[in-house]
Every structure is written in structure tokens, then in C-alpha cells.
């Protein structure tokens, strides 16, 4: 019998997980005690491989470019793509928020309390990308710092020449081994995805979701539109890639992002999907994707646009056009500073609300359903990263076109 593709197997795990989760809505505790550990096992396995994978593949990627100018060009393209698509995403979120009025008719519950964690400032974020101790960066799995360190090693290997070869061979071998470990872990993905989604569905029954259905629909619709309009157009325009092929190729990573709500934890799968299914070269994907998992968050930005309007509507505040433009700017910056872990976008939402003087109490309402919104926005965050890798690879002549997506 022909074995089902990994995409199909993960999809089956996801759908079964949603169905089984519905049966547990009356006893979410049982789901989290007995089923969640199998999901956590999967997350731990994936997280185990992130640091060696990113470090080794990026060192090899940077060294094989063999030219600092090319690396700089790729960097600028990547950043431009990330910033523009993110700004578009917030704008789309604001437009939908204005049309669909998700906060109209809602009132603040009396017991609404906020515990606001402090969002890091932009300068802190920028300075923080250079590691003062690369080993600590690896211990903390700080992706931006690892990227900077890996690029330095890669460039230096090229400059050193012959003497750098043994280190390059070491990282090359480590990268191959890391890819193999990812492939082994992915065999467990369908069960992992199933076990991750069951407790989430169980904990978010109709009683939790229904009152805020309008916000949920607005965010999900926005995410679908952003993917359908922006990514389809970009991969077609720059890479002449059929959008269906693109989404099929990105599907394992999209499902993984949806269930884990973490761009970082999805990174090994995004890299595999973009290389194996879409034909992006290792040197591009190993640079564009780790960077994207950390700074490119289109879904998060879109969500922040919708939520800012939602909060304004709940409090009966009219936002002027110029205030909404401030939101575009702050949400774009905030999404760069958002870590690729569950719930990080909610913390950064404080920054966006504060930028236009909206009451932070609004966050208490969103908090109750944030996980459900997080699943959609993380899925879009990761899809945006993968689309970015396709676009940059195509413009650098580093896209293999004969790949047929499974
Ligand atoms: N969970 C999102 C991510 O990992 C970040 C967020 O909370 O918006 O991409």
C-alpha cells in the first residue's frame, strides 16, 4: 500500500484532534493531563534541534555565498519584503476592523483586570541582536543572536580560505545530520499535532468563543485574505509559482504553526518544507527563514490592527485616520519585536494600544480567546516567511523549478 504523504498524515492528526477535542470540552482537565504530554514531547523534540539546525545551516549558507556583497543584497531584499508585507497586513486588519466592527455592542466585563507585561523598546531590540556571549545565545535559543554569530563565522570562513575548510566541513556535516534528525522527528508529527490540538479545542468550548465570535471571524478572514491575496500574488509575480503548489508545499509548516502557535518551534519544518517541497536553496532558506521566524509577523500585525479597532469600539472611541496610521507604524515595529512563541503578540499589543492612547483594559477581553487567534496569526506568520524565501530565492536564481510538490 502506498504510504500517505506527511502532509496528509499531519492533516489527519489535526482534524482528528479537533473532533476528539470537541468531546473533551466538558472535561478539559482530562485532555490536558492525559493527551497534552504527547504533544509536549513533540514540541521538545522539535525545539531540541532548532539551535544546531539554524547555526550549522546558516554558517554553511553564509560561507557558500562566498561574497559579502551578495549576502548584504539578500539581507536588504529580505528586510524590504518583510516590512512591506507586514505593513500591508496591519492595513488590511484595520480595513476589516472598520468594515466589520467587531467591538460594536460589546461592553467591558466588570471584573476585567489587566496584568500588563512590559514590551521591550525598539532600541533594546535592535542592540540585542549582537550577542555578547554566543554560547549564551545558543543556550537561550536566541535566534537573532545566533543568526548574527553564524553569519560572522560563515563570512570569516570564506575570508580565511584553505584553513577554514575543516570548520566548514564540520558545520556542513552537522547541518546534514540536523536535517536527518528533523526528518526522523517528523514521523511523529501526526501524533504530536493531534495531542497538541486536543487540549486547545477542549479548553475553548462554545461558551468561551461565542461572545467574541466577531473578532475571531475578523482575524481569521483577514489572515485568509492576506494569504490568498498577498502571498499568491508575490509567489506568482516573482517566482512564476502556481499559488496552489505554494500552499501545498507550505502546508506541513502551516499546520505545525497552527497547532503549536509558535513560529520558532515551526522553524525546522518551515525549512524542510521550503527546501524539499518548494525548491528554495539551502543558503537562502537558512538565512531568510530563521530571520523571518523572529522578525516577520504578518498575522500578528494584522491581529493587532483588528484588536486596536476592537478595543476602540468597545470603549466607544473613534480613531482618526492619522491615529490609524500610527497603528500601522507601531504594529509593524511591534511585530518585529514579537518573539516567535505563543502569546507574544498579546504582550506587544499593549505597545500598539498605548501608541494611540487606547485603554489597556481591552486586553483582558482579548486574553480569554488569544490562543485561538494565535493559531491563525502564527500560521500566517510562518506562511509569510516561506513566501519570502521563495521570492528571495527566485530573484537570486536560487529556486529549483523542477520540484514537484508531494
Ligand atoms: N505566536 C506568534 C508566533 O510565534 C507570535 C504572536 O503571539 O503573535 O509567530
The distinct ligands, each listed once, are: aspartic acid
Name of the level-1 CATH class: Mainly Alpha
Structural class: mainly alpha
Q: What is the CA-atom radius of gyration, in angstroms? A: 21 Å
Instruction: Give the proportion of residues in helices.
Output: over 70%
Distance between the termini: 17 Å
Q: Return the domain count.
A: 1
Q: What's the number of extended β-strand segments?
A: 0
CATH architecture descriptor name: Orthogonal Bundle
Portion in beta strands: under 5%
The global form is: globular
Remind me, CATH topology? Proton glutamate symport protein
The CATH H-level superfamily is: Sodium:dicarboxylate symporter
Mean pLDDT: 91
Number of helices: 19
The succession of helices and strands, N to C, reads HHHHHHHHHHHHHHHHHHH
What characterizes the major β-sheet?
A: none
Low-confidence residue ranges: none
Amino acid at each position: 500500500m502506498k504510504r500517505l504523504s506527511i502532509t496528509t498524515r499531519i492533516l489527519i492528526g489535526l482534524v482528528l484532534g479537533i473532533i476528539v477535542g470537541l468531546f473533551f470540552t466538558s472535561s478539559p482537565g482530562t485532555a490536558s493531563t492525559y493527551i497534552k504530554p504527547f504533544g509536549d514531547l513533540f514540541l521538545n523534540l522539535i525545539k531540541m534541534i532548532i539551535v544546531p539546525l539554524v547555526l550549522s545551516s546558516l554558517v554553511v549558507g553564509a560561507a557558500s555565498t562566498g561574497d559579502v556583497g551578495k549576502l548584504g543584497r539578500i539581507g536588504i531584499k529580505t528586510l524590504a519584503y518583510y516590512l512591506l508585507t507586514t505593513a500591508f497586513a496591519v492595513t488590511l486588519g484595520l480595513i476589516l476592523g472598520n468594515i466589520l466592527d467587531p467591538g460594536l455592542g460589546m461592553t467591558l466585563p466588570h471584573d476585567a483586570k489587566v496584568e500588563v507585561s512590559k514590551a521591550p523598546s525598539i532600541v533594546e531590540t535592535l542592540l540585542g541582536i549582537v550577542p555578547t556571549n554566543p554560547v549564551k545565545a545558543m543556550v537561550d535559543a536566541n535566534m537573532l543572536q545566533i543568526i548574527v554569530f553564524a553569519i560572522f563565522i560563515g563570512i570569516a570562513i570564506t575570508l580565511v580560505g584553505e584553513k577554514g575548510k575543516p570548520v566548514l566541513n564540520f558545520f556542513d556535516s552537522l547541518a546534514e545530520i540536523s536535517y536527518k534528525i528533523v526528518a526522523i522527528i517528523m514521523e511523529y508529527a501526526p501524533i504530536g499535532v493531534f495531542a497538541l490540538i486536543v487540549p486547545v479545542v477542549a479548553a475553548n468550548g462554545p461558551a468561551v468563543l461565542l461572545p467574541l465570535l466577531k473578532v475571531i471571524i475578523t482575524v481569521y478572514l483577514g489572515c485568509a485574505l492576506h494569504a490568498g491575496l498577498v502571498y499568491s500574488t508575490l509567489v506568482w509575480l516573482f517566482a512564476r509559482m502556481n499559488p496552489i503548489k505554494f500552499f501545498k508545499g507550505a502546508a506541513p509548516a502551516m499546520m505545525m504553526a497552527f497547532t503549536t502557535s509558535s513560529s520558532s518551534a515551526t522553524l525546522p519544518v518551515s525549512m524542510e518544507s521550503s527546501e524539499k517541497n518548494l525548491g528554495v536553496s539551502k543558503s537562502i532558506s537558512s538565512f531568510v527563514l530563521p530571520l523571518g521566524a523572529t522578525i516577520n509577523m504578518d498575522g500578528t500585525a494584522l491581529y493587532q490592527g483588528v484588536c486596536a479597532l476592537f478595543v476602540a469600539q468597545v470603549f466607544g472611541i473613534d480613531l482618526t485616520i492619522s491615529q490609524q496610521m500610527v497603528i500601522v507604524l507601531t504594529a509593524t515595529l511591534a511585530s518585529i519585536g514579537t518573539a516567535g512563541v505563543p502569546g507574544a503578540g498579546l504582550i506587544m499589543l499593549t505597545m500598539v494600544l498605548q501608541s494611540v492612547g487606547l485603554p489597556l483594559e481591552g486586553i483582558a477581553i482579548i486574553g480569554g480567546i488569544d490562543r485561538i487567534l494565535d493559531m491563525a496569526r502564527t500560521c500566517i506568520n510562518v506562511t509569510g516567511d516561506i513566501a519570502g524565501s521563495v521570492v528571495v530565492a527566485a530573484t537570486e536564481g536560487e529556486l529549483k523549478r523542477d520540484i514537484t510538490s508531494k
